[in-house]
Amino acid sequence: MVSTLPVSLVESKARERAQAILDEGSARELLGPFDRFESPHLEAQNIVPQSDDGMVIMKGTIHGRPTLIISIEGNFQGGGIGEVSGAKFAGALEKALEDCQNGNLIYPVIIYDTGGVRLQEANYGLLSIAEISSAIVALKEYVPVVGIIPGKIGSFGGMSLTAGLCSALVMTREGRLGMNGPEVVEQEAGIQELNSKNKQFIWEMIGGKGRLKSGLVDRVVEDDVPNYIEAIESVWSNPTFANRTLQYEEFLSMLHELSLDGKIDPSVSRTLLQNRTKVNEIKYDTSNGKTASRGRTWFNVLTDHAPSISPAPTVLVADKEQDGKKFRYIAVVPDEGNKFYRARHGEFGLVEAWTVAKYVREAVEEDAGSKEKRVIVPIVDVPGQAFGYHEELFGIYLACSASVEAYATARQQGHPIVTLVVGKAISGAFLSHGMQGNRILAFDDDQVQVHVMSKKSAALVTMRTVEELEEFAKTVPSMAYDVHSFKSLGAIHELLQGINADLPSNEQLQQVKESIQSATNDILQTTDRSLRIRLQSPEAIEKGRKASIAVRNAINSQWK
């Protein structure tokens, strides 16, 4: 018997990976390097663009089955998602969804090698990841979506949320999966929280074997192409999935029982995760008072100070009748007594993400037989996701994926989602709580900020100074933090003027309610339940998303 050398995906580049997975002779690349769809935003920052923008899209077959491969090139900008690469990814999934809806099934396989959003394009990455996530959720109604994380970089940032949405995840021992990269956790929380240089410990926490033992991924394979193909075939032939994003009760029960008096060892966390079960009642400590925040202020005034139906003190949920329609308002707020100490100031942490998923899902289930679905209003005042050791250990990426999926499912099943941004809307927190809305409203206010990372951490990752980033933001609006720059990208439905966000008058409250009602009516006038409208606004067409639109048009013309 002749033995053959293994064909490594870990050591291969994105294009080689895609070609190796597909049947020989079946691969056909869309928007390849000779089509020269480069990022229009990098040269201004003295960065040489790449002619495929680090994203490889191929159609072909695996054992004769029509397959779409999306492969991310980690050697270009750390696999970061920018406008062009994000549009290629999202646009390909959207075309696959069209095929599936028309009865022509095509099976997506995503090969991850990415640090998340490309910080040099910032909010373009944020918009793209929301659109990618929406397409994955919709596609799973027709076919399994398989994610592969071979190694090198792994899957981090907002892209870890899309990995969490996959029907099944396949990793190697070399692969890593987490929301916040170890270096960023150390930057944000200090070396006492996590020492990013302790590589062996990092792999034990978030490496493939650790994630498998925690029950957070489906397969770990040896790095050889036939092993990946066998794993893909296994998913396709045995479509019984873990559906981890639906297990909010089990995860909330486990998190409630945790004692955080000291750091939990990875071996202990794996046992807890594997044995998670639902308990009948969860009671939180609410003796720490109610820390003021814009999220709390607007939840209170919009619901007439209704009591929250959520037991978690950091997540406020209430239903309210308004103009003959039922609204569910959801806000994430600070709690100085939160035992998850990295989520005490309004950050979107483990409990917050799973709780939001629970109450969005429950609205969907309760309204399943109703012709008129309640309107869901995420009130956004989130300074970011929680950067912490325990957050990464217990899979904050998956918790945020569950929240994303809940909102996307609600929208796709006919719930109007009107996002109201009253304060900060930062990074994975905004992706998880707000970015899946049909319409986004925001206050025209200096404290309203939209971005993917704090300036200090962005400077660390990009190896620039904060001052250099601020200078680049003057010519690249997607890098800026202010709400006007975000509006110029075409995603905001209405910018609300003249609102005192901290102490609104009755007249200002009425103005906001009317804007929410108007956005709801606008949603109900169309049957489109996708996020496509963000590419159809005047700002998007004229300038804000020109490259996104051009990429999708090119994919459409090359799709066969």
Automatic annotation (TrEMBL):
It comes from the Bacteria. Gene3D superfamilies: 2-enoyl-CoA Hydratase, Chain A, domain 1. Pfam families: Carboxyl_trans (PF01039), MdcE (PF06833). GO terms for cellular component: acetyl-CoA carboxylase complex. SUPFAM superfamilies: ClpP/crotonase. One of its GO terms (molecular function) is propionyl-CoA carboxylase activity. Residues 1-98 form the CoA carboxyltransferase N-terminal domain. GO terms for biological process: carbohydrate metabolic process. This is Malonate decarboxylase beta subunit. It comes from Sporosarcina newyorkensis.
